Amino acid sequence: MNDVIEIPKMLVIYCTFKCDLSCAHCYTESGPDVEDATVKPEHVKELVDELAGHGLTEVVLEGGEPTLFPDLMEQILEICESHDIKVLVRTNGSWVQDPSRLDPIRRHKNARLELTISQFLGNDDRVIAITDALGDLSERTSIVAYDISGSGMPLGELEKVTGKFQVATAQTYRFGRAVKLPVHQAPRSLIDLPVCRVLGATMTLFPDSTVWACDGFMVRQLQKKRAYSTPLYLGTLGTDSFEDCMDRLRSNLILKLIRTIGHFGVAELAGITIEGHGPKFRRSINLPIMGQHGHKQPASGFEHICEACASIMSSETELQRLQGDPASRARAVDEVERAWELRQRLFTLATA
Q1: Could you tell me the domains of the chain?
Q2: Pairing relation of β-strands 141-147 and 167-171?
């Protein structure tokens, strides 16, 4: 059962929550009035150095707006380049008036950009100015537009504005400022929600040096609340070492349950009621290849698995009882072992 939780292959770094925009879809609630605290380069180096030896494939720089701190970005890119690790920098294009903020990315060929243009939709001149300012970085840039209206976005029209760039659209999720945006779609059934492929596979570092076992949309909310008793919190660098964080990750029963029987399996075992649904759920094995299969459930009211996870993680009393009560814990461990064995068999059959 020890291999249920793997060493994360992706590291997400929230460089800062300082931003020169206050976008309506921002789940981190970043903006100009947020304090300009940044991650410590020595903590980035500690995580990258340790994870690189275990197959770290990508580092993502988030915000806030990372390009507001080009010296910090330069240091992080150098650390990653020393291990030949690719870096994705997510940016809002506010550097259009000062493209020199992109110089660290130009100097490091292991870095690429993901440009969000949602906040400028309808202002074609601004979008064109931003894409033109990319210059030689155009070949290393992808564009994303969040559907702020909830009514769908015409890709063809967006691509006419962005020229040679292809635009990927993404739905918004109800966290941070985005809770005020229109609902993107009708509520899905529980079993139709996408299986979580992030939890335990991604490690996240925040400016306050806390480390978390997920980069889901709700983790920023947990970090703001200092919800250090939740299973997603792994430690605080400077006080805890990398090995301390990994020990908490490997021994985390709730994460093991989610990786094997899914979020709603955890809800069933812990007796958690979610949005009007009783604690009894038909559930299934969480299979990375086959998706989550099982019986249809009533509409859950969730648009994304992160929303369901947030509801479960907020049920701290039930989760603590599940882990602390000897009989409940024994049952949970048995569930993990049986589900993991079945998962491994099905994985072997699917890949044979």
Answers
A1: 2-185 (3.20.20.70), 252-351 (no CATH)
A2: parallel
